[in-house]
Amino acid sequence: MTAAYKSIVDRFATSIRDGRVPAGTRLPTHRALAREHRIALATASRVYAELAAMGLVAGEPGRGTFVRDQRGHDGVEPSRRLPVPRIADLSFNQPLAAEQTSQLRHALRELSTSGNLEAVLHQQPPGGRSRERAIVATHLLDRGIDVPPARVLLANGAQQALDAVLTATTRPGDVIAVDALTYPGFALLAAAHSLEIAPIPSGAAGPDLQALDRLCAARPVRAIYTIPTVHNPLGWTLDRPTRERLVAIARARDAWIIEDGTYAFLDEAPPLPVQALAPERTFYVASLSKNVATGLRFGFLVAPGAHEQQIVRSLRTSTWGVSGLITALATGWIADGTVARLEKTRRDDATERQQIARAAFRQLDYTAHPSSYFGWLRLPPDLRADQAASHLADVGILVTTADAFASTDHAPHALRLALATPAIDQLADVLERVSRTVDSMPR
């Protein structure tokens, strides 16, 4: 039976890839597929599940299973090629301020003439040196996090920090609660650690905490991954009572909390971080990728005291220590106020870009935080996200579909639009083109 089911998957995949089954084709129902190939209904479901995992089909509740348009640009690793010259990349944020190149040159010159240049060539201890950890601890005070430097650990970006947290706190098979739409990189880490993702339904203002409590009552949830401030991709910032309810559930059900604060700087006056409300069970993770530069692989995390050594061991196992050169640059910019100035620049820039986006999508269902670098564009019910991505690719615009962010089996038909990469004077034209393309698509 295994060989038979695999051969069915292979035949479908080949037919879809060579165009014999064109994009948009509605495939047989699970029962019809089972009857046609004389296989069990569960096996037929497995066939479609594998095709969906390959990105070849998409299931829509109540409508059926459809062949995806492969010309679209979606997923965690989208194709960067387009059928026409590229106009804009709305699939990935690369915010840069005009003065950053000169800032980098100045910082490198300063570093080259410092009296302790040799130190950047030495192996850094796992978690970073005490001086740099103290600088980051001071930086975190502005986030509402007050911890001693020993509780702050440095990493090569937020992704490594998240990986270290999962290594220290979970075992294969553990259940992790996440929002139904969430940061794609966390799902990759969960799969690498053989963890089970349990999605939490979400509304316009945040996760359904009653559903989370029911999940924790029914399943042994090991940890809750949350982005409470400027949620990626939906843009919400949870209010103080909602954060307190989340903490109460985690305490009652004895679950860890993993708080991702990477985009938190974009909200000028958010409530206290979850870490400040529950320091005994919250791992706070952030980086300088969005407020300074994506290529600056510098992250940090705050761990409950009982887990500090386990996190250090995890960091040692993966890369031993952080880069001395990157750490010197990053902590130097934190200490001299460059990071704070760049964050203000980013917030102002993002606010202007969101105003442009709201004007361009005034006739569409668009949701975003007022000062974030991304927005969520829900498509009309008779449009599929892969089709929209394909049509936009045909006019030179890269986007990301909801599939990349979905922790559920069925992703909504929506696009996540990254607004930071196009030049500000070109953004209105680009987004108007997106709006016109979506509006003109055949239903």
UniProtKB/TrEMBL annotation:
Molecular function (GO) terms listed?
DNA binding; DNA-binding transcription factor activity; pyridoxal phosphate binding
Keywords, in A-Z order = DNA-binding, Pyridoxal phosphate, Transcription, Transcription regulation
HTH gntR-type domain boundaries: 2-70
Q: Which SMART domains match?
A: HTH_GNTR
CDD domains hit by this protein: AAT_like, WHTH_GntR
What InterPro entries does the annotation carry? Aminotransferase_I/II_large, HTH_trans_reg/aminotransferase, PyrdxlP-dep_Trfase, PyrdxlP-dep_Trfase_major, Tscrpt_reg_HTH_GntR, WH-like_DNA-bd_sf, WH_DNA-bd_sf
Q: Which family does it belong to?
A: In the C-terminal section; belongs to the class-I pyridoxal-phosphate-dependent aminotransferase family.
Name of the protein in its database record: Putative HTH-type transcriptional regulator YjiR
- Its encoding gene is what? yjiR_2
